[in-house]
Amino acid sequence: MCAPARSETGRIDSVNFSSERRPLRASAWSSLWLLTRRDLKVRYSTSMLGYLWSILDPLLMSLIYWFVFTQVFHRTVGETPYIIFLLTALLPWVWVNGAISDSTRAFLRDVRLVRSIAMPRWIWVGRIICSKGIEFLLSLPVLIVFAIFSGAHIGWGVLLFPVAVILLAILTLGTGLLISPLVVFFRDLERASKLLLRVLFYASPIIYGASDLPPFAQPLAWLNPLSGIFAMFRAGFFPDQINWYLMAVSAIECVVILIIGALVFRRSIAGVLKEL
Q1: ABC transmembrane type-2 domain: which residues (predicted)?
Q2: pLDDT in tens, 9-46
């Protein structure tokens, strides 16, 4: 490798380094996109319904909860139209659930490729987040259709929707970076994460709103970053769900989780490669 060029003052010329980093960054993003496309193609290439499978799960869950809480029991939580209230949280929840579940096998599923291909290792987690995020975006027409038929009104709060998408991507990436290397060392963590996700589903304001929690359970909403994110997703249809303090806390928690996940990932990746 050639020695870095020095200026007349003896300082290392940073231009060469910056020009070298640009192709590496472009290659990393290109690899991320290629792996994301590969995951999507593999997942739906042999399926007759294709990406429709990604919306059937949240759609059926929403219909079941709608039937139970509106036709069987007298609903005391959420807002009307309740089907929209459910979908605005269930659709992003599928992204969270799928991304975290698949991140537990981010390295174990493609061990040979992880060992042989020289690329930033975070891409193996990032491709999962991206593929699940694309599935989420492709499921949004379902929300639009139900919003039209249910007569839901859209307000200025819909501007918070892109912010919620970004925060959810940050949260899932940070969690994936945190959990993916740890599973390599502690295999039981894969099953434990599935159990925790089941608990998290009911501990998150999905079938109810954060404001519906009793006073003694309110701290749970503030400790759960999904509370503020789901409130952002619902803000366009339900202005009463807007809680700026809760949203700000959730945003801070997402950034903190990303930083912790990146630090854990960086310090453990060498051991992960040896363990594989």
Answers
A1: 49-268
A2: 444 344 343 444 555 566 777 777 787 887 777 776 66
Query: Residues near 128 by Cβ (< 8 Å), separated by ≥ 6?
Result: 39, 99, 102, 103, 106, 176
What single-letter amino acid sits at 164?
A: A
Question: Both tokens of residue 204?
Answer: 């998150």
Report residue 269 as tokens.
């990746």
Distance CA 147, CA 155 (A): 12
Nearest to 137 by CA among 171, 155, 161: 161
**Would you state the structure tokens that stand for residue 147, as one six-digit string?**
């919003």
d(CA 30, CA 28): 5
- Sign (positive/negative) of CA torsion 80, 171, 181, 185? negative
- pTM attached to this predicted model: 0.84
**Helix 161-185 vs helix 188-203: angle between axes, to the nearest 10 degrees?**
150
Instruction: State the pLDDT confidence band at 260, using cuts at 50, 70 and 90.
Output: very high
Confidence of residue 162 (pLDDT cuts 50, 70, 90): very high
